[in-house]
């Protein structure tokens, strides 16, 4: 039995949310010197990988690629891949914070604007008092500040580096600096820090249950309509995709 489902050439492991958390827990417990890069593979990243060789290389070298979105899961099932469930960056982050609170993990948060970054840290300290916030910085920095941020992360040596710089920039940033960050695991999480901070409202549970969070976001953020156009394009291309002969 094949343990991955290929979506437009990207292999997604057939694992659940709980299995993903278990994998990352084991990484934290090991003394690996190499950073473990988690890529939350949404339709936008999969589509970009079709023409962006550098991004495709980043995804191919990642330690774990998760099925970020119901579109990925549905396409896999229609093509016989049968991914068990979606493992979104936001949901995975919440699970990691819960587990980290029990296991006393450390986190460094990079991204969002300064007020959101501050508020996010406050919420996490309140809701998950047993984990360690090893540091944080907003996502607006110049080259000189970037060097100081990297040095701060290196000194903190967090279990998790959470990067909310937007996809695929977060993935590129992690990959560019992976040899010097001195974190055990790094993961791009899109706008998840805004959701934790409460500056962006997440879809109610019923919308999540029926997999229409994208519609909720579109209603609340109409400016996203151009970005949302990639979803039907992805569905058509992914369903018609044929492996290239090498």
TrEMBL record:
HAMAP family, per database record: TagA_TarA
Residue intervals passing through the bilayer: none
Role this protein plays: Catalyzes the conversion of GlcNAc-PP-undecaprenol into ManNAc-GlcNAc-PP-undecaprenol, the first committed lipid intermediate in the de novo synthesis of teichoic acid.
Enzyme class: transferase
The protein's name in its UniProt record: N-acetylglucosaminyldiphosphoundecaprenol N-acetyl-beta-D-mannosaminyltransferase
Protein keywords: Cell wall biogenesis/degradation, Glycosyltransferase, Teichoic acid biosynthesis, Transferase
Taxon lineage: Bacteria, Bacillati, Bacillota, Bacilli, Bacillales
Organism annotation: Paenibacillus spongiae
Record EC number: 2.4.1.187
Keyword Cell wall biogenesis/degradation: yes
């Amino acid at each position: 039995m094949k343990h991955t489902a290929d979506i437009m050439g990207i292999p997604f492991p057939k694992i659940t949310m709980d299995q993903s958390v278990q994998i990352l827990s084991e990484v934290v417990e090991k003394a690996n010197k190499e950073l473990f890069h988690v890529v939350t593979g949404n339709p936008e990243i999969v589509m970009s990988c079709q023409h962006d060789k550098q991004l495709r290389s980043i995804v191919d070298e990642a330690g774990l690629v998760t099925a970020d979105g119901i579109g990925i899961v549905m396409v896999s099932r229609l093509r016989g891949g049968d991914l068990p469930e979606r493992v979104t960056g936001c949901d995975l982050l919440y699970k990691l914070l819960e587990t980290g609170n029990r296991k006393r993990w450390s986190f460094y948060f990079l991204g969002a604007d300064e007020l959101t970054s501050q508020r996010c840290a406050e919420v996490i300290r309140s809701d998950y008092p047993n984990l360690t916030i090893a540091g944080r910085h907003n996502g607006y920095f110049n080259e000189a500040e970037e060097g100081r941020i990297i040095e701060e992360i290196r000194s903190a040596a967090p279990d998790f580096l959470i990067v909310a710089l937007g996809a695929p920039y977060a993935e590129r940033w992690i990959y560019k600096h992976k040899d010097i960050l001195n974190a055990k695991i790094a993961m791009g999480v899109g706008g998840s820090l805004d959701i934790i901070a409460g500056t962006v409202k997440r879809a109610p549970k019923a919308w999540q249950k029926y997999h229409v969070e994208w519609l909720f976001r579109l209603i609340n953020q109409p400016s996203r309509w151009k970005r949302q156009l990639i979803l039907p394009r992805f569905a058509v291309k992914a369903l018609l995709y044929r492996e290239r002969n090498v």
